Amino acid sequence: MSRVLRYVAAAAIGLFVASLILSLQGYSAGAFLEVLRMATIGSPYAFLDVLRWTTPLLLSGLAFLIAARVGYFNLGVEGQIYVGSLFSALISHLLPLPPVLAILAGIVAGIAGGVLWALPCAWLAKRWGVNEVVTTLMLNYVAVLLCTFFVKQFFLAKVAGGGTIQTITTDKIEANAELPVFTPFSGLNLGLLLALIVAAVAAFVLMRTRTGYELSAVGEGPRFSQFSGIPVHKRRFQAFLVSGAVAGLAGAIETQGVLHSFIAGSLDNMGFNGMLVSLVAMNNPIGLAASAFFFGILQNSQLVISQATTVSSYLVTVVSALFILAFAANPTRFLVDTWRARRER
Amino acid sequence: MPDQQSPAVSYVELAGISKSFGDVRALDDVTVTAPQGRVTAIVGENGAGKSTLMKVLSGVVTPDRGTVRIGGVERHFRTTRDATLAGVGMVYQETALVAAMSVWENVVLGWEPGQRGILRRKHARRTVGELAERYSLPVPLDAHAGDLPVSIQQQVEILKVLYRNADVVILDEPTSVLTPQEREGLFAAMLNLQAEGKTLLFISHKLDEVLASAHHVTVMRHGRIVSSQRNDELDRRGLARSIVGRDIAPIDLGTRPERGATVLSVQHVELGALHEGPGIREASFEVARGEVVGVAGVSGSGQHELLQVISGLVAPDAGTVVLDGRTRKEVDSASDPAATLPALRKAGMSHIPADRNAVGTLRRRPLWFSALVGRLDDPEYCRRGVIRRPAARALAERIIREGGVKASGPDALPESLSGGNLQKFIVQRELLSDPVLLVAEEPTHGIDIGAARDLRQKLRDVAADGGAVLLASTDLDELLETCDRIIVVFDGRIVLDADRQDCTEESLGAALTGLSAVPA
């Protein structure tokens, strides 16, 4: 009950401020609600677009969550997605395969890229106790710039007519490696199904199995785990790599499902948004899908608002930041506590 | 200092205090007075209301009814700051100093002397130094608080209270973290406080300490005062009876069996220090079936390391540990403790760790989570990698039932249980597997006398059923009451290994401080 109230209050505060800003600009007070309506059920494809954004958010949220379960703060999801995306694009160019195999190869390559980028951080944390917040955050810059450099230097797309190119991007991947889309009017693709399956399996493993038990124990009570005979460092290491793998998968799905190439800059903030998704879900694997869906709506609103109004799409970023702030501050806690105290008397 | 015999003025008066939490009446019309320059002890079992009463006095809890008078003035505390301003200070059981700050900084923290926002460091340090001298609390002013032993940290906490001009000093179970020697130091400090006219309130479980230090003893049970008497009107047995509400029978040691087969053999074990002190320089001893063997040692003597090695949490640098005829090598191919522990448990070892919060249970997970320790290889509880929750819940329920644990059920969080109840849960969990060797570290720490007696009886029962028990305790009375044999560790070596009949509190005390040679 108090949990529901917490979400509702945070959303209400975000909505109120957004409406206030819009009305100061001369729009009607309900303008932001209208934007939300258009972004979700306004057109036949709006809802599909929300799901298209939900897909990478769900996976990057899951990547953050898995590491968080064992007590790691994986801020490197961003970079791991980048590397996963590039690997997935490159394998298609380097190794042309028949239809289904090409898709699988791309996904495996993406996962490998994510794991590869998580590996040094995981190893440093395990072997020397190096703080993973520092290593993952720093490697993000390396990932973004190195991938961009690599593409520009060796795999830059050939432009028809030999003109100069504006964005740094690889050639389109083989059609065989593309994830099938549901309609040509939306980026929504088979990746959603994949993400849902992965999230469901992860939720089951985390909540019901011995592995999940051990991961929770390691994250919440390292000394309890040691006492119970759980190999603490090994489990944390494994979870870190799985976290990287899920991030890599998110990158591969972006490449194979929507972008159909590696495009520098198009993946920005996907990893950090995943962190927000996981935080709002309070690191609960069941709540993750709902949280990803919510952020998917906001992401899609960002596109709609710039089309429908003259207001900057940053307004939506402000709203989501306000939502997070209000959620973290938990203003209703005071009300709930007072109400409880009164009932006790 | 007032004459011991003359009726002293009541400085603290708590009258008709009642407080309920939900449906639970924690305090029911409680009236207590404490005279100036005296020690008033408040004793009672866990949950009797002692702590709640002291929280009322120190402003943590607001009572539903009743009045608080300090020095004849009625007070209504809304916060601890109100209480501090009225001269009431509390020294908590667990110290809460800032490890990275110096002692004097810790003392002034929160009430720093300043001028326009600038800390007057020299002045502050000098004030704290003078205070320490006046009350004979020899603390190193410039040392980092985190580097100090617990006993000194506690003295810093007392200084902190005095620095805030407390006339009333509440000590909440101050001796539970201290060794016998450190305890004497605390009592000396308490005498100084009395001489300076402070009003002391002393909460304790340990009757001998109460009788040795308090002028007045007030007994609480179920949120009420059951008796309030002068020290010279009391004896240990009567006091124990009024606390528990019934007679406490001495534990049944059973008939001492003939020395059975060796269960645990520790040979020439060596280990570097884990925290401080010498580690283990050399240790060899054996424990046989049917035996309860006590392990005593002043903190930092190496007994902690010894128990860590025996319970498989740490691999020794040299030497062998043999459990029930199986060497560590046989149960464990690698030296990885994570591989050793499950094998040791399978071989029949159980372990009650000293730290029930961080080691014994997982605080924020339901009890059934913590009930599963050492049982994940059992298909009853985990089949094909999937945890069987109904079985785990049933297991937790059984532990709660058989251990007499007060908990709402298998889904209760460990952090919602009182310390004593959590300890009962852990003990029962470890007893459930019929251990061949039970390693028990401070199992009665913070548990009231009735429950502690039952727990010691359970340790004896393990031995009577053919198991062996290794009991580590800083309470010499507990060791003398429960054990067949007592081992004393000093400076990383076993300096005493004697049958109980040959031990006295004096001989143990001498061995603990390294004063005695190996006895005849």
Q: N- to C-terminal separation of chain A? A: 20 Å
Strand content bin of chain B: 25-35%
Q: Please count the helical segments of chain B.
A: 18
Number of helices of chain A: 14
Basic shape of chain B: globular
Q: Please give the share of residues in helix of chain B.
A: 25-40%
Overall SS class of chain B: alpha/beta
Radius of gyration of chain B: 24 Å
**Oligomeric status of the shown chains?**
heterodimer
The helicity of chain A comes to: over 70%
In round numbers, the mean pLDDT of chain A is: 89
The total beta strand count of chain A reads 0
Order of helices and strands of chain A: HHHHHHHHHHHHHH
Mean pLDDT of chain B: 83
Rg of chain A computed from alpha carbons, rounded to a whole number of angstroms: 21 Å
Low-pLDDT stretches of chain A: none
Strand content of chain A: under 5%
Main location (chain A): membrane
Protein name (chain A): ABC transporter permease
Membrane topology (chain A): Multi-pass membrane protein
Subcellular location (chain A): Cell membrane
Helix and strand layout, with pairings?
The complex is a heterodimer of chains A (345) and B (520).
Chain A: H1 2-24, H2 31-40, H3 46-69, H4 77-94, H5 99-128, H6 132-155, H7 191-208, H8 210-220, H9 222-228, H10 232-259, H11 270-280, H12 288-308, H13 314-329, H14 332-344
Chain B: E1 10-21, E2 24-35, E3 39-44, H1 50-57, E4 65-70, E5 73-75, H2 80-85, E6 88-91, H3 103-108, E7 114-115, E8 118-119, H4 121-134, H5 150-163, E9 168-172, H6 180-195, E10 199-204, H7 207-213, E11 216-221, E12 224-230, H8 236-244, E13 262-271, E14 280-288, E15 292-296, H9 303-310, E16 318-323, E17 326-327, H10 328-331, H11 337-346, E18 349-352, H12 356-360, H13 367-371, E19 382-383, E20 386-387, H14 389-402, H15 419-431, E21 437-441, H16 449-464, E22 468-472, H17 476-482, E23 485-490, E24 493-499, H18 505-512
Parallel strand pairs in B: 3-10, 3-11, 6-9, 9-10, 15-22, 15-23, 18-21, 21-22
Antiparallel strand pairs in B: 1-2, 1-4, 4-5, 7-8, 11-12, 13-14, 13-16, 16-17, 19-20, 23-24
Helix pairs in contact in B: 14-15
